[in-house]
Amino acid sequence: xxAPLPSHLLPEIKQRELPVELIDALKARFAERxxxxxxxxxxxxxxxxxxxxxxxxxxxxxxxxxxVADVVKLAAQYRVPVIPFGVGTxxxxxxxxxxxxxxxxxxxxxQVLSINAEDLTVTVQPGVTRKQLNEAVKSTGLFFPIDPGAxxxxxxxxxxxxxxxxxxxxxxxxxxxxxxxxxTASGKVIxxxxxxxxxxxxxxxxxxxxxxxxxxxxxxxxxxxxYPLPEAISAATCSFPSIExxxxxxxxxxxxxxPIARVxxxxxxxxxxxxxxxxxGLREETMLLMEFHGSPSSVxxxxxxxxxxxxxxGGQAFEWASTxxxxxxxxxxxxxxxxxxxxSRPGCRAISTDTCVPISRLADCLLESIAEVDASGIPYFxxxxxxxxxxxxxxLIDPNLPHEREVAEALNNKLVSxxxxxxxxxxxxxxxxxHKMDFLVTETGDGAVDxxxxxxHALDPDNIMNPGKIxxx
Amino acid sequence: xxAPLPSHLLPEIKQRELPVELIDALKARFAERxxxxxxxxxxxxxxxxxxxxxxxxxxxxxxxxxxVADVVKLAAQYRVPVIPFGVGTxxxxxxxxxxxxxxxxxxxxxQVLSINAEDLTVTVQPGVTRKQLNEAVKSTGLFFPIDPGAxxxxxxxxxxxxxxxxxxxxxxxxxxxxxxxxxTASGKVIxxxxxxxxxxxxxxxxxxxxxxxxxxxxxxxxxxxxYPLPEAISAATCSFPSIExxxxxxxxxxxxxxPIARVxxxxxxxxxxxxxxxxxGLREETMLLMEFHGSPSSVxxxxxxxxxxxxxxGGQAFEWASTxxxxxxxxxxxxxxxxxxxxSRPGCRAISTDTCVPISRLADCLLESIAEVDASGIPYFxxxxxxxxxxxxxxLIDPNLPHEREVAEALNNKLVSxxxxxxxxxxxxxxxxxHKMDFLVTETGDGAVDxxxxxxHALDPDNIMNPGKIxxx
Lengths: 473, 473
What we know:
Two copies of one chain form a homodimer.
Chain A: E1 3-4, H1 20-30, E2 34-35, H2 38-43, E3 51-52, E4 58-61, H3 65-78, E5 82-85, E6 102-105, E7 112-116, E8 121-124, H4 130-137, E9 142-143, H5 154-160, H6 167-170, H7 173-176, E10 177-183, E11 189-191, H8 205-209, E12 218-225, E13 227-228, E14 232-239, H9 243-255, E15 262-266, H10 268-278, E16 287-294, H11 296-312, E17 316-321, H12 324-335, H13 337-344, E18 349-352, H14 362-376, E19 380-385, E20 390-397, H15 402-421, H16 437-459
Parallel strand pairs in A: 1-3, 4-6, 5-6
Antiparallel strand pairs in A: 2-4, 7-8, 8-12, 9-13, 10-11, 10-12, 14-16, 14-17, 15-16, 15-19, 18-20, 19-20
C-alpha cells in the first residue's frame, strides 16, 4: 500500500488537465505508440518510492529524438507536463506525475550509436541500460564502470547524477558524462559538449543537465567515458568485529590513496538477509566487500596494503573470490541486498536514506545513526559505498502501520541533520525528487535554491519539464 | 603594441559611465582600497591577451566576502560592470573592461581557510595561488595537482575551468572543485555545495560556476580536492624522430590505460628556444616530457611500458630526471616555454591556440596544422598536453606588422575548424573570453549558446558581471 503524499508536498500537486485536442494530436502523430490505457499509465506513474499519486494522462513510446521533440512541442503548446521515463528504477519519486501530463518512455531508444574505442568514449541513446552498454563494448576490451546496482538506463543515470559501487575509483555520472543531446522545454534539440576529454568552452551545460532530474529537458543522447578493462581484477571479503572497525579501515585506506575500485560495507544483519536470499554462506558479521583493479602486481600491492590495514583494525577472514564467476556471485548478492531485505519482512516497504559525508566524519555519522535506529525497533538493512562516505539505511516498514512510517521519517530526518552538520549532503546519488525537497533547502540555503529556481524559470517558463521536483516552483 | 579589437567584437564595447556618486560611495566604503589612479587601472585592464581596450574606471582591493558583496551591491545599484581580478594571467581577454566598470582585485583574499587533510580537501580564498596552496599543504603529505603553468589564483583557475600538465591523470578544475562560495549579481552570498565527495542534491551550481569566467558571479571561496603525494615520482624525457612518432606513442599509452601523470609534447624548435632560455642541453628534437606517479613498483612498471611503446615508434634517448631538483628544473623549463618563445623573437607577441580533440584524432589535427603554419612562414612554438588531446601553438607575431596578425588569425581559424570537424573543442583550458566568442557559436550551435544566454539573462539581468565575454548579450 502506497502512502499519501505528506502534507508539505501537497502544494506540488496541481493536476493539469490534458486537453482532448492534445490527446488527439498525440494519437495522430504516434498512433499505437501513444497509450492512455490505465495499466500502461500506472506502470509509468510509479518508481521505487512509495507514494500514491495519480498516473500520467498519457504515455508516448519515443523511438527517436524527433519523437521526443514532437511530444515536447505539443506539450509546450498546451502547457502540460512531460516526464521522461527509462526503466523506472529511481527512488525519490522522480517519475510521479504529480501534476499529470505525458510520460515519455525512452526505453525503445536503446541503440548504441557509436563506440569510439580508440578514444575511450561511447555514444548511446538514453534507453540503453548499463548492462546492455557493457555487453556492447565488451569486445573492445573497455568497460563502463558506473554501477548503481539496478540495471538503470544511461538517460536516467545522467538525470539523477547516479554513481554506485565503482565511484570511489571512477567517479560518478558527473565525472563520466562527456556530452549530451537534450530536447529543451521549447522542443529544440541542443548538444551540450563535444567528445574532447576536456573543454573550457562556455557554461558547462553538460553538468547542469546531469542531475537535473528531467526538470530542464529530456536527454536524448549520452556520450560517456569508457575505461580499459583492468589487466587484473580481484575481489575479497573481510569480516570485522564491529562496524566501527570496518569504517576505520576504510577511512585509513582512502587517506593513504589506495586506488581501490570498490569498497562496500554490509552490516552483519544485512549479510544474514543476503545469505538467505542469495543462498550464500558469508560470515554473518560486519563485512567489507572489496575489489581491486590494475596490473597483477599493483592489485597484489593494493590487496596486501588493505589486508595490513584491516588487520590493524581487527579485520579477519580475508576471503578471495578468484574466479570471475565467484566475483559475479558476490556482487550480484550485494546488488540484491535491497530485495533480500524486502524479503526478510514479507509485505514491507523500504525507506532508503542516502546521506554522504566527508570521509573523516563517516564513523561519527554512521555510529550515532545506527544507535538511533537500533533503539527505534524498526528493522533495517545497512549497506554503504563507504569509500565515498555514502551509505544507505533501508528502514523496513509495514505500510499498514502509519506509526512505522512516521518513525522511519523521523530517523531519516535526524540522519540528514547529522550529515549536514558534518558538512555532508542529504543525497549522495539518488537525487532530490519529491522526497528531499525540504532537505535541499536546509542543505544549500535559500540563496542557492533561488538560483536553481531562477534557472528553471528561465529555461522552462511554463514549468512543463517534470514539474514539482527538486524545489517548489 | 596592442591591437585594436577586431570589428566583429566592437558591439561588445559599450563603455558605461561610472557615476560620480558611485565613486564617492566606493571611496567612502573602501578608502584607499578603492583606486582610480590610471596606473592601477591600467594594471587591471589587461591580461596576457593582446587587445587594446580602455581600463576599468576604478579598482577595489577586496579583503573579504563582505567587501566583494558590497562592491557588487553598489555596482548593481548603478548598473555598472564588475570584473573579478586575481593575478592577471588569463589569456583570452577575460579581464578587459570592454564596458568599463569596477575591477575587483581579490589578490589580498589569500588565506588558506581550512585544510582537511583527513578528507583530502582544502578551502581557500580566491586569491590563493596554486604554488601558495601547495606550500601550505606540503606538511600534510598532500598536494593539489592542477597546474596551468602560470602561478594563477584558485579563483581564476575555477573561473576559466583551468587544467594543465597533470590533467591527464587528475582531471581539470571541473573534476577537482568540490564547492564554491559565490557573490551573485545582486550581491547575495551563496554556497554551491558541501565537502561531501559526491552529491545528487539539485542542480550542479558548482560546475555551472566553474568556467563561467566571472559572468555569473564573483567566486569568494573555493573548496578543492587534494591527493596524497605519490610515494614515488619519476620524470623522463624521450626524443622522437618526428612529431607523428611522439603523438602515436602518446595515443598508444592512453589507449592502454597507463595512468601516466604528465605527458607533454614539445617540438624540436621549441626545445631549442627552451634550451636558450633555461640554459639546458636537451636534444633539439621532438620530445615527450613525462612524469609517473605511484608506488615504486607501479612507477617502474609504467615507465617500462612507456619505454617499450616509445621504442616501437622510434623513440630513443630516454633520459631520467631522478632527483626532485632535476625534475623541477625540467618542469620549470617546460612552463617557461612561453617566455622562452617570446624571447626568441624580441618584441613579438604570442597568439596562443588551445584546441583539444579526441585522442584518436590528435595526429590528424596536429600534423595538418603544423604543415599550414610551416608554410605560412610565421615563427611559432608548439607545446601540448597531448595525453588529453590538447595542444597550443603560439604564433610569434610582430605586433607592428598587421599582416602577421592576420596570417596568425587565419591559421587559428583553420585549426579550430579542423578541431571542430574532428569532434573537438576550440578551447581545452583557456576559456572563451573575448577572443573565441564566434568559435563558441560554431562549436556548440546557436541552441546551446541561447541556453547559456538565457541563464545569464536570468541570473544577471542588468549584465553587470564581466559583460561582453563568452557570448554577446
